[in-house]
Design brief:
Distance between the termini: 56 Å
Radius of gyration: 19 Å
Helix content: over 70%
Number of helices: 9
Number of domains: 1
Strand content: under 5%
Number of strands: 0
Largest sheet: none
Shape: globular
Length: 231
C-alpha cells in the first residue's frame, strides 16, 4: 500500500491503533506471567518440583530461549495464531521460572518494584513514541552494552564479586531503559500503513509486544536487586 495515499492524520491514527494492540498483548502477557508466578509460589509442591529438579528448571529456561528465538526468526513464516500461542506459552514458562522471586523477596517489595518498573517503562516508552530524534545509534549502543552485560554476568557467576554484581545491576537498568525507548520507536516505525487488521498486522503486534515484554521483565528484575527486600 502506497503511504502517499494517506494523510499525516490517518498515519498517526493507524500507528496509534497498532501500538495500542502491542501494549495490550504485552499487558496480557505480563498478567499471565504474574498470575502463574504467584500461583506456583503459593504451591509448595510445585515450588519443590521446580527448585528440587535442576534438569526441569534449566529445561524451562532453555524452552524460554528457544521460544523467543523461534518467534523472532520465524515470524514471517508462521501464522498469527501460532505466534499468539507461542507468545502466551512463553509468558507461562516465564511465570514458572519467575516464581522463584517470591521465595527470595517479600511480596510488598515485589509489588513496589513492579510499580517503579511500570512507571519507568511508561515514561521511556512515551519518549520513544513521540520523540523526533532518531534513536538508532542509542539502540545499537545499548545492544552492544547488553552483550557485554551478559558476558560480565556469566563471568560473575564464577567470581561471585559483589562489586561486579552492583555494576551489572546499574548497567542493566540503564541498558533496558534505553532499549525501551529505542524498541518503542522501532516498533512504531515497523508498522506497515494500510495493513491494519490483516494477518501480518497481528504478527507485527505480537513481535512488538514480545520485545517490550522482554525489556520490561529485565528492567523489573534489575530494579528488584535494588528495591527488593529479601526474606
Amino acid at each position: 500500500m502506497n503511504i502517499q495515499h494517506y494523510t499525516q492524520e490517518q498515519i498517526q491514527v493507524e500507528q496509534a491503533n497498532f501500538m495500542s494492540k502491542v501494549y495490550s498483548w504485552m499487558t496480557g502477557a505480563l498478567l499471565i506471567t504474574g498470575l502463574v508466578a504467584y500461583y506456583v509460589a503459593s504451591s509448595p509442591e510445585l515450588i519443590n518440583l521446580i527448585v528440587g529438579n535442576k534438569i526441569l528448571f534449566f529445561g524451562l529456561i532453555i524452552a524460554e530461549i528457544a521460544c523467543v528465538g523461534y518467534i523472532s526468526a520465524r515470524i514471517n513464516k508462521i501464522t498469527a495464531q501460532t505466534a499468539t500461542g507461542l507468545f502466551v506459552g512463553y509468558s507461562v514458562l516465564n511465570g514458572l521460572t519467575l516464581s522463584m522471586i517470591f521465595l527470595i523477596y517479600t511480596a510488598s517489595s515485589i509489588a513496589t518494584t513492579f510499580f517503579i518498573a511500570a512507571g519507568t517503562f511508561g515514561i521511556m516508552s512515551f519518549y520513544g513514541y513521540y520523540t523526533k530524534r532518531d534513536l538508532t545509534s542509542i539502540g545499537n549502543l545499548a545492544f552492544m552494552a547488553l552483550i557485554g552485560l551478559i558476558i560480565a554476568s556469566v563471568v560473575n557467576m564464577f567470581l561471585q564479586s559483589e562489586m561486579m554484581y552492583w555494576i551489572t545491576t546499574y548497567a542493566g537498568i540503564l541498558i533496558f531503559v534505553a532499549l525501551i525507548a529505542y524498541d518503542t520507536q522501532k516498533i512504531k516505525e515497523m508498522n506497515i500503513i494500510g495493513n491494519e487488521g490483516t494477518e501480518e498486522d497481528k504478527k507485527e503486534a505480537i513481535l512488538g509486544a514480545l520485545s517490550l515484554y522482554l525489556d520490561f521483565i529485565n528492567l523489573f528484575l534489575y530494579l528488584l536487586r535494588i528495591f527488593g527486600d529479601r526474606k
